[in-house]
Amino acid sequence: MIALTFVSKSQLAQVVIPVFIDDRLHDYVMKAKTYDLVPNSIHSKFDVDTSEFTDGNIEQQLSSDKNAAIVTYCYRGRRAQFAANRLKAMGYTDVVNGKNVAYIMSSLCQDDNVLIRQLYEKESSTYSYIVMDKASREAVLIDPVVETVERDMEVLNGLNAKLLYVLNTHVHADHVTGSGKLKQILNSRNDDSNIVKVQSVISKASGAEADIFVSNGDTVNFGEQVLTVKNTPGHTPGCVTYLLNNNSHAFCGDTVLIGGCGRTDFQGGDPNTLYDSVMNNIFSLPDETILYPGHDYKGRTCTTVGEEKLNNERLTKSKEEFFDLMVKRFDGSSYPKKIDSSLPANMKCGVYEL
What we know:
Order of helices and strands: HEHEEEHEHEHEEEHEHEEEEEEHEEHHH
Oligomer: single chain
Number of strands: 18
Strand order of the largest sheet: 7-8-9-10-11-12
Shape: globular
Helix content: 25-40%
CATH class of the largest domain: Alpha Beta
Strand content: 15-25%
Radius of gyration: 22 Å
Number of domains: 2
Structural class: alpha/beta
CATH architecture of the largest domain: 4-Layer Sandwich
CATH topology of the largest domain: Metallo-beta-lactamase, Chain A
CATH superfamily of the largest domain: Ribonuclease Z/Hydroxyacylglutathione hydrolase-like
Number of helices: 11
Distance between the termini: 60 Å
């Protein structure tokens, strides 16, 4: 009798971008409803009697990196355990038994314990986001604006939130970040050395100052929530997208806007790089992933990967068409009106020194 060893739900929730292998019978998977599937799974044909994958191409479907995370699952976990054991024998080092679809999805959907507040700054049409773990009240604030810091603090206080990190998706050109001002106000109140200070976060590639520099694959943890960093340069060389938990939500700054994208004619922007970032790191996410943009100028609040893949006027074009459109549309003749004050300040975490 094989011993069944299931990965714990808390451990499964922390796995960064795993490959899911569905070991259920082929006929069942083909008839399964959407709610009975783990998105983007690989379906394998596995013979329990011989403990072998019978479709012959499982290794071609997996990463060449045998240290990459793999989660097997089936109905009750028995076939998945056999498959996990076989993969380990094949040299894959990070393989766990995820039991079944319900077990996996309940582990990954931490959204019942997360709160997201979208906040708006009208002059630059900028969206800022409070993301808070409900249980611990620990929170992050993404892309704050200096003029609305007091408003943001009121919302945080109303939620009884414990702000740990202030994150920027990139160095902004149309407004001054509120990161420095928030740090100055909140950290001056925390005279007790045992109280955690608010820290600023930005990508290492941005070249800006911050307390913490992040790169592709890094994580920001607060309570039970995890934001994973994806490098998405193109609008600027230092743009990143923050993916919440198992890609349920993505805070993509100016890389993808609703029906459009950020301009690429200053700050080292490049249309080809932006296009590749979107196709490889955002449009590759599940269609149901909710995208929260850095701006919107028509009163819209969010979108999904699936909607943008179908409807985005720029990013549904070929790479060559996209390049031509961006070069023609954004020719460097009309910069944001606050660029001369915003860029120097934002390179130093806002108008206040660290």
